[in-house]
């Protein structure tokens, strides 16, 4: 203030002492900083002498100092209006007033008047040049600065302004040369000025001269020096002290650095920023800029330290520094939990300092999503929380994209001191070029690559124009504003130009992929991984790993298991140390081996030397590798590894090894009072279920029951159904059927809405021949599921066929084939049912052709699913139906051969089954609890076949016990085999039926010598079987024997009479009807039987066969495909009981066919063949492993990505 006091002129006239004293008082108040009092003094002086220009200038100066530019303008304007040449500095002061009010054009106009009046006045030229830079009038600014330099080439302020003007015109190299000359001159002057400082001289020397004093008339001009921003211009731009020169040098170094950055020389820019920091180590703006330049050079680790330092020294960029520090922590992904916590802290501080910044807010949302995904295991729904944050970020980014603009990273209002390195505010209008990173050559290359394909000349010209315009925009724009203009701060720290120009940051897609994996949306996870990989050059190995894992899980859920295995193998190759990829691959291998579409398939041992066996061995190898790696790392082996290993071992026929694995699992998860661990209910369920399966495979039934009972005793309502189904299966294996049905009923009550429970009940009902209940169970399972699975439709078809509903069975078989066209068992069932339908319709020739194809076709390679489904139409059954067709077609010799061939095939099957049973009977007896023996009668094993003779049910017998004979509580032969194969009595009964059919063939052929012989064989060798069938069957054979003898020769009349008497003794129906019709004249014998068609409704089908309705005993014409000449219908005059039929059972297949007219001598006999429906084998009573293993085949969890080390 003392220096200023010496420079203030005397404002009062020496003649007028009162005016002089007032002016002197005002001057003193100015020196003391009391500008308000000084203004009052000068106002008083003006009241004493109105228009006194020295008082107006001093008062205007005070107004300008206290910020009242409008009043200062009026005082300075009054001086200029009274005497435009009073003081040339007045023009600079009034221009400063207009500059502060934002009226640059009016300020330039006053400075122009000054320059016109005072040619060569350097302060006015410098001030007008600076204002022209602000209004982007670079030509006039260049001219003003050039005029100053022409007069004084060493003027560093003017040369700096010339460099700014050249930059604005786009002459970047010329601007850089001017900045370099300014730097050199400033360095030389600073070195010169620092010499006296080093020797102890004063470092605060002031500028030499006051304002130039100019006379106008008799008054002296006011030479008071204005403060701060006007002093440099009014002092001709000269530096007044070493500190000012250092500040100027720091400013020009930053300008040159930004110029070099704009020209694509970040190394040179960084060198200048470091030099500026050498001059002023506390320059926070230089620290921030140097960190930004380091980012553009991909030196992220070094940049972090400078941003951290700028937080302490530059308050205005503190929010941006925090945001960049947070983005740097997220840039190298995957980031550690500590890095994410640090990033979250920085971004929260940044949004607190700059709450209106959308890029900071979006980056914060992305960081919160990363923090959610890195929460501790067991945290509920981290993926959903992350997706919520990422959806908000993506919505904001899409909104930016739709508006076609990016958002400035900071709020620039009122921040003129931050706009440029030299403290200059942003030039021109608010609109600025929208680039992610200002002045980077990579951004220019990206823009050029987006040009529409045109001719070479157009592309060249357009590219040149765009490049020039862009360079001009960048040169004229605000460096810091453009450098921080982005969508998210992750774009600013991205290393690749493609990522910098992307609409969304790569990290956002990676996080969305991980979040989708966590919530199980694998298809969306794959899509996000692919988006992230398009931004990686080269592709990121971690993202590739997540892509392979997510793609494998997605394809596994689509049952594309081979492709899924390939994806997991790629993931393992990408990261060989990953255990989760091996676990996923083991799950896919086991799914491929078991066939994931069948719930009961997994309990059966896989065939030896099969692909399924190899797949399970590969799965075990992966699981073993996981165990070894976890043990070596000291980690905990997941329960899924133990349980999946045990399940694979059971399927590989190694139940003992499976039990050892389960024991090791129990030691880890179910030890007494384990520290910090509680047993998971699902883990315990799988443990007991797999243990029961292994024990059951070893024949340790009671222990398996105990394992299920232990789970039931815990009272877990969620596992009641699973445990009861498992225990019911064990009871069934032990032959304790009532307990099995009880547990299955309880399971159904516990979980009535689960389709697998209904299907398990249906399997049990089907196994025990309770077909109506089985049909309802499969029906309910199909309704509860999303759709009727092929296996459910096929099983329901079995139940309907067993009930005699062939139409419903055909419909369900067709449904299963529509869903799974390659299901061979369903295709065979379809062909066989079609053949039976043709027989019922009388189309024997076409039925014969179809059956012939089924007999001679080779069995296709059945899938694992088909091996667990019962197969209809065994080969000997097809031969039996073909013999029936031949019989009705009149080819009796071929029919007899087929009947004999079917009997040979049944005998062969019986011998194989008997040998296997005898080899395992001792073991079966030892494994089963002892129960009271159940008495059996002959032919009792034929109970299981539809239409077979039923033995009486004992009071204490269950349904299953009627189908099997217990010896000491152990199961007899496998009831899934045909009745003709699982006992000698059953085979004898089948032989009896075949011989009866052969007798009818001989009678049709008129061979009365062979027919009695076969009847004698029946009576002699199969008396026991006839006795089991009942008296009507015995009566029928004696009656046929007598009829044959009567027709053969009159000499055999006595034998015939004795045979009739025996028949009458067993059942009088046949003899009474024969005597009633004896003596009547009949048509001549015919070689072809005339069938009697009767209009019937198929049992349970609800569909009538198209046939002509006739009275009882009538006969319609034979089909044209069989008979060439229609014959008149014949009437069956025999009573229903007298029609020859070995078993009068409406469930016999031939009961739906008309009786055949046989001419035996002069007598007519009406008869039917004895052929059953195809035997319906029940589905294997396998353990319902869907409740024990299906959850093992579910891919869970989010792929882990180990943190990368930052370079």
Question: Could you give the topology of this structure?
Answer:
Layout: H1 2-7, H2 17-32, H3 35-48, H4 53-66, H5 69-82, H6 89-100, H7 104-117, H8 122-134, H9 138-151, H10 156-168, H11 172-198, E1 215-216, E2 219-220, H12 231-234, H13 242-262, H14 266-279, H15 284-296, H16 300-313, H17 318-331, H18 337-353, H19 358-373, H20 382-403, E3 407-408, H21 441-449, H22 456-476, H23 479-483, E4 485-486, H24 489-492, H25 497-501, H26 506-519, H27 522-533, H28 541-557, H29 561-574, H30 579-594, H31 611-633, H32 639-651, H33 655-669, H34 681-697, H35 701-712, H36 720-733, H37 737-750, H38 755-767, H39 771-784, H40 790-802, H41 806-819, H42 824-840, H43 844-856, H44 864-867, H45 875-889, H46 892-927, H47 959-963, H48 984-1005, H49 1010-1021, H50 1023-1029, H51 1031-1048, H52 1053-1066, H53 1069-1077, E5 1156-1160, E6 1163-1167
Antiparallel strand pairs: 1-2, 3-4, 5-6
Helix pairs in contact: 2-3, 3-4, 4-5, 5-6, 6-7, 6-8, 7-8, 8-9, 8-10, 9-10, 10-11, 11-13, 13-14, 14-15, 15-16, 16-17, 17-18, 18-19, 19-20, 19-26, 20-26, 26-27, 26-28, 27-28, 28-29, 28-30, 29-30, 30-31, 31-32, 32-33, 32-34, 33-34, 34-35, 34-36, 35-36, 36-37, 37-38, 38-39, 39-40, 40-41, ...
């Amino acid at each position: 203030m003392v220096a200023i006091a010496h420079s203030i002129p005397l404002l009062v006239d020496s003649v007028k002492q009162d005016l002089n004293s007032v002016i002197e008082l005002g001057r003193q108040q100015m020196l003391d900083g009391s500008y308000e009092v000084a203004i009052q003094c000068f106002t008083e002086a003006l009241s004493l002498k109105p228009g006194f220009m020295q008082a107006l200038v001093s008062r205007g100066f005070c107004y300008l100092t206290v910020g009242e530019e409008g009043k200062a303008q009026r005082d300075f304007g009054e001086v200029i209006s009274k005497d435009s040449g009073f003081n040339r500095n007045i023009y600079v002061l009034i221009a400063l007033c207009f500059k502060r009010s934002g009226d640059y054009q009016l300020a330039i106009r006053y400075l122009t008047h000054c320059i016109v009046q005072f040619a060569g006045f350097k302060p006015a030229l410098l001030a007008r040049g600076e204002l022209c830079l602000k209004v982007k009038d670079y030509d006039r600014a260049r001219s003003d600065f050039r005029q100053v330099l022409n007069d004084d080439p060493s003027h560093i302020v003017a040369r700096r302004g010339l460099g700014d003007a050249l930059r604005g015109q786009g002459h970047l190299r010329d601007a850089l040369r001017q900045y370099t000359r300014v730097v050199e001159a400033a360095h030389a002057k600073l070195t010169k000025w620092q010499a006296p400082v080093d020797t102890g001289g004063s470092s605060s020397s002031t500028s030499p001269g006051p304002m130039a004093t100019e006379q106008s008339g008799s008054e002296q001009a006011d030479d008071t020096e204005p403060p701060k921003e006007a002093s440099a211009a009014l002092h001709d731009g000269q530096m007044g002290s070493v500190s000012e020169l250092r500040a100027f040098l720091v400013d020009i170094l930053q300008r040159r650095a930004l110029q070099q950055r704009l020209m694509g020389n970040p190394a040179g820019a960084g060198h200048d920023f470091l030099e500026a920091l050498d001059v002023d180590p506390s320059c926070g703006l230089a620290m921030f800029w140097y960190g930004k330049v380091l980012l553009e050079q991909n030196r992220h680790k070094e940049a972090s330290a400078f941003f951290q330092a700028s937080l302490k020294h530059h308050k205005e960029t503190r929010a941006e520094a925090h945001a960049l520090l947070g983005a740097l922590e997220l840039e190298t992904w995957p980031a550690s939990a500590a890095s994410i916590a640090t990033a979250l802290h920085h971004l929260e501080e940044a949004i607190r300092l700059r709450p209106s910044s959308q890029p900071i807010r979006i980056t914060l949302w992305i960081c919160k999503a990363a923090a959610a995904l890195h929460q501790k295991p067991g945290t509920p729904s981290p993926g959903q929380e992350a997706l919520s944050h990422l959806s908000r970020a993506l919505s904001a980014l899409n909104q930016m994209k739709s508006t076609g603009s990016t958002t400035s990273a900071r709020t620039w209002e009122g921040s003129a001191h931050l706009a440029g390195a030299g403290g200059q505010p942003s030039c021109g209008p608010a609109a600025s070029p929208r680039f992610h990173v200002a002045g980077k050559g990579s951004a220019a290359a990206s823009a050029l690559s987006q040009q529409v394909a045109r001719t070479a000349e157009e592309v060249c010209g357009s590219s040149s124009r765009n490049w020039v315009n862009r360079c001009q925009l960048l040169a004229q724009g605000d460096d810091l504003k453009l450098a921080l203009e982005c969508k998210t701060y992750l774009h600013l720290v991205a290393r690749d130009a493609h990522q910098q120009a992307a609409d969304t940051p790569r990290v956002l897609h990676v996080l969305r992929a991980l979040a989708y994996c966590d919530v199980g949306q694998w298809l969306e996870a794959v899509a996000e991984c692919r988006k992230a990989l398009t931004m990686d050059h080269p592709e990121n190995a971690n993202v590739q790993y997540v892509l392979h894992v997510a793609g494998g899980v997605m394809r596994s859920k689509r049952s594309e298991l081979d492709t899924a295995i390939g994806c997991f193998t790629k993931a393992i190759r990408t990261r060989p140390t990953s255990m989760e990829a091996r676990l996923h691959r083991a799950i896919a291998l086991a799914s491929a081996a078991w066939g994931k579409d069948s719930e009961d398939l997994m309990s059966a041992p896989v065939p030896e030397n099969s692909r399924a066996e190899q797949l399970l061995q590969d799965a075990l190898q992966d699981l073993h590798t996981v165990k070894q790696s976890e043990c070596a790392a000291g980690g905990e082996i997941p329960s899924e590894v133990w349980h999946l290993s045990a399940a694979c071992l059971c399927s590989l026929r190694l139940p003992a090894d499976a039990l050892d694995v389960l024991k090791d699992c129990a030691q880890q998860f179910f030890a007494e009072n384990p520290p910090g661990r509680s047993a998971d209910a699902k883990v315990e369920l799988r443990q007991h279920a797999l243990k029961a399966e292994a024990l059951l495979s070893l024949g340790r039934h009671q222990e398996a029951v105990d394992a299920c009972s232990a789970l039931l005793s815990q009272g877990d309502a969620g596992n009641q159904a699973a445990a009861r189904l498992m225990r019911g299966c064990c009871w069934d294996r032990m032959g304790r059927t009532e307990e099995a049905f009880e547990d299955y009923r309880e399971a159904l009550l516990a979980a009535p809405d689960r389709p697998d429970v209904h299907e398990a009940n249906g399997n049990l009902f089907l196994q025990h021949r309770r077909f109506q209940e089985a049909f309802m169970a499969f029906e309910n399972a199909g309704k509860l599921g999303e759709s009727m699975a092929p296996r459910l439709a096929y099983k329901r078809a079995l139940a309907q066929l067993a009930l005699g509903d062939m139409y419903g069975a055909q419909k369900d078989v067709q449904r299963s084939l529509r869903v799974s066209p390659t299901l061979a068992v369903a295709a065979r069932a379809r062909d066989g049912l079609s053949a039976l339908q043709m027989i019922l319709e009388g189309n024997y020739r076409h039925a014969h052709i179809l059956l012939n194809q089924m007999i001679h076709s080779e069995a296709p390679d059945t899938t694992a699913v088909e091996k667990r489904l019962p197969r209809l139409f065994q080969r000997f059954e097809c031969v039996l139906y073909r013999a029936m067709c031949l019989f009705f077609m009149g080819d009796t010799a071929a029919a007899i051969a087929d009947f004999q061939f079917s009997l040979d095939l049944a005998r062969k099957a019986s011998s194989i089954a008997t040998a296997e049973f005898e080899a395992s009977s001792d073991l079966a007896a030892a494994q089963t609890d002892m129960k009271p023996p159940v008495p059996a009668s002959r032919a009792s094993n034929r109970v299981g076949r539809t239409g077979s003779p039923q033995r009486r049910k004992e009071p204490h017998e269950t349904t299953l016990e009627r189908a099997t004979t217990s010896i000491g509580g152990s199961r007899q032969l496998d009831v899934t085999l045909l009745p003709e194969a699982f006992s000698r009595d059953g085979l004898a009964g089948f032989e009896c039926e075949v011989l009866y059919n052969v007798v009818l063939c001989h009678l049709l052929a008129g061979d009365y010598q062979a027919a009695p012989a076969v009847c004698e064989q029946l009576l002699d060798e199969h008396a026991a079987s006839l006795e089991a069938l009942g008296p009507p069957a015995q009566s029928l054979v004696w009656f046929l024997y007598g009829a044959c003898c009567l027709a053969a020769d009159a000499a055999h009349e006595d034998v015939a009479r004795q045979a009739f008497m025996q028949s009458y003794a067993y059942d009088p129906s046949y003899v009474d009807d024969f005597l009633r019709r004896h003596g009547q004249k009949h048509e001549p014998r015919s070689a072809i039987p005339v069938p009697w068609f009767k209009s019937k409704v198929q049992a349970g089908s609800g569909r009538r066969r198209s046939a002509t309705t006739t009275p009882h005993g009538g006969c319609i014409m034979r089909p044209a495909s069989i008979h060439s000449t229609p014959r008149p219908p014949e009437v069956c005059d025999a009573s229903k009981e007298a029609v020859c039929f070995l078993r009068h059972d409406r469930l016999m297949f031939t009961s739906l066919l008309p009786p055949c007219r046989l001419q035996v001598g002069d007598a007519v006999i009406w008869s039917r063949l004895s052929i059953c429906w195809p035997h319906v084998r029940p589905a294997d009573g396998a353990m319902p492993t869907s409740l024990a293993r299906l959850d093992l085949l579910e891919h869970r969890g989010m792929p882990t990505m180990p943190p990368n080390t930052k370079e």
